[in-house]
Design brief:
This protein is mainly alpha-helical. It contains eight helices and five strands. The strands form two sheets. Strands 3-4-5 form a three-stranded parallel sheet, sandwiched between helices.
């Protein structure tokens, strides 16, 4: 419902809503029906579930990643977008505020409110300096906190805190992603 508001300010914007519609989410078909009723279908693509090369392509082409959830634990898609340097606008629910510091590495809005969501999206799309700052801070945050090396360090610290002797790693972790390198 935020899309019509965004299009009034940024008429050239296009939206990709990816996902499978599982776990209570809307199906791509129902999303397109709503888009037609709101007269924004021309600006919307709903490819359904994306992975692999298609997900990489969508993230590379994105100017903003929007996660307007009502409930989330720690969404991997959020971390993937941040690792790719895509500025994030998300709702202030679940584990999202543990990852996003509002105004620093993303923008947070309250759930169920299309107007503030649209304003945040418009800000990212129209303010180059904001978009660049959020992009760089998001990428840096994910590298520092969620890369394989960072996770291994955190686990080692936890084990040491529990009194378990931990040997240092003698080589770089094998699990690597180019956007976390």
């Amino acid at each position: 419902r935020a899309i019509p508001i965004v299009l009034r300010s940024v008429p050239e914007a296009t939206f990709v809503i990816a996902g499978s519609g599982l776990h209570g989410g809307e199906s791509p078909q129902s999303i397109m029906e709503l888009a037609r009723s709101l007269r924004v279908a021309h600006a919307l693509r709903c490819p359904g579930w994306v992975n692999g090369a298609m997900k990489e392509s969508v993230l590379r082409e994105s100017d903003v990643f929007v996660l307007p959830s009502y409930f989330e634990a720690l969404p991997v898609a959020l971390l993937e977008a941040m690792a790719h340097g895509v500025p994030v606008v998300a709702t202030r629910v679940g584990g999202i505020p543990d990852v996003i510091e509002d105004g620093v590495n993303g923008l947070l809005v309250d759930p169920g409110q299309p107007e503030p969501l649209a304003r945040a999206i418009i800000a990212v799309l129209t303010d180059d300096a904001l978009r660049t700052r959020l992009r760089e801070a998001a990428r840096t945050h994910v590298r520092k906190r969620y890369s394989a090396g960072a996770v291994i360090e955190d686990l080692g610290a936890l084990y040491r805190e529990l009194g378990v002797r931990v040997e240092p790693i003698k080589q770089e972790p094998v699990v690597r992603h180019e956007y976390l390198a």
